[in-house]
Amino acid sequence: MTLAMKRVVASIAFVALALVISSPVSASPTTASGIPLDAPWKVTVYELVRKSFTHPAWGWQHGERNYQIALELAKGDGLTVDTDVLFAACMLHDMAAFSPYQAKGEHGDVAARESESILRDAGFPMAKFPSVQAAMRGHMYYSDPGNDPNAIVLHDADSLDFLGAIGAVRIIALTGASAASAASAVKTLRGFIHDIPPRLITKTAQRMGAQRVAELQAFLDAYQRESFDGVLP
């Protein structure tokens, strides 16, 4: 091979290598908020919740917020969590609010029971399912999540979603068009200010909770002023 031919071959090899290096790696799809759908079962579950779990308080957006905040809490407190467990629990923990999963009983228990077939059929690694169930059963602010870090961060993330601006929007949305006023929602929100912060477990959630309480308190105080100091509901 002549020197000229060697140079041509070397140039072709260099270009090919550059193309390989510069070619974008096929990225996993993501949810609306950027959560990686890095396993086929996650795609299946997410398609289900996007299609069926639509509600301003309990819908799929709430599940996505819980997941994102749960990761933030885990990072802030140095807790090791399993993103498979968190994804499944966050997306399905309120499924009892939607048909055909509405059933009698505490909604966390209903989710822990009814989610089994959904996750198994989707291809979820079922060895992790007991942790999903624990997180679902302990997710409400008045519940005991136990010692599982996944359950703890979901508990705190779900609790935080009742506070701040998002908490106000969620609870007021529940009043509906037939409600005489927002008075019941305001009463509930003031109750959250009192009841939720002492139940936050992680230090990161406690700091975030204090900020959200201040936001919610300011909103409710403004509502009281703008409704003529409560004379009008």
> Which structural class is indicated by helix and strand composition?
mainly alpha
Approximately how much beta-strand content do the residues carry? under 5%
Helix % is 55-70%
Query: Main β-sheet: number of strands, strand sense, barrel status?
Result: none
Number of helical regions? 10
> How many domains is the backbone divided into?
2
* Spatial gap, N to C terminus: 92 Å
Helix and strand element order: HHHHHHHHHH
Q: What's the total number of strands?
A: 0
- In one word, what is the shape? globular
Radius of gyration equals 24 Å
What would the average pLDDT be, to the nearest integer?
Answer: 88
Q: What ranges have pLDDT less than 50 throughout 5 or more consecutive residues?
A: 3-25
Q: What this model shows, in words?
A:
The protein has 233 residues and is mainly alpha-helical. It has two domains: 28-150; 162-233. 62% of the residues lie in helices and 0% in strands. The protein is built from ten helices and no strands. Helix 4 (83-92) packs across helix 6, helix 5 (107-122) packs antiparallel against helix 6 (129-137) and helix 9 (183-195) packs antiparallel against helix 10. The radius of gyration is 24 Å and the shape is globular.
Topology summary:
Elements: H1 3-22, H2 40-52, H3 60-77, H4 83-92, H5 107-122, H6 129-137, H7 149-160, H8 164-173, H9 183-195, H10 203-226
Helix pairs in contact: 2-4, 3-4, 3-7, 4-6, 5-6, 6-7, 8-9, 8-10, 9-10
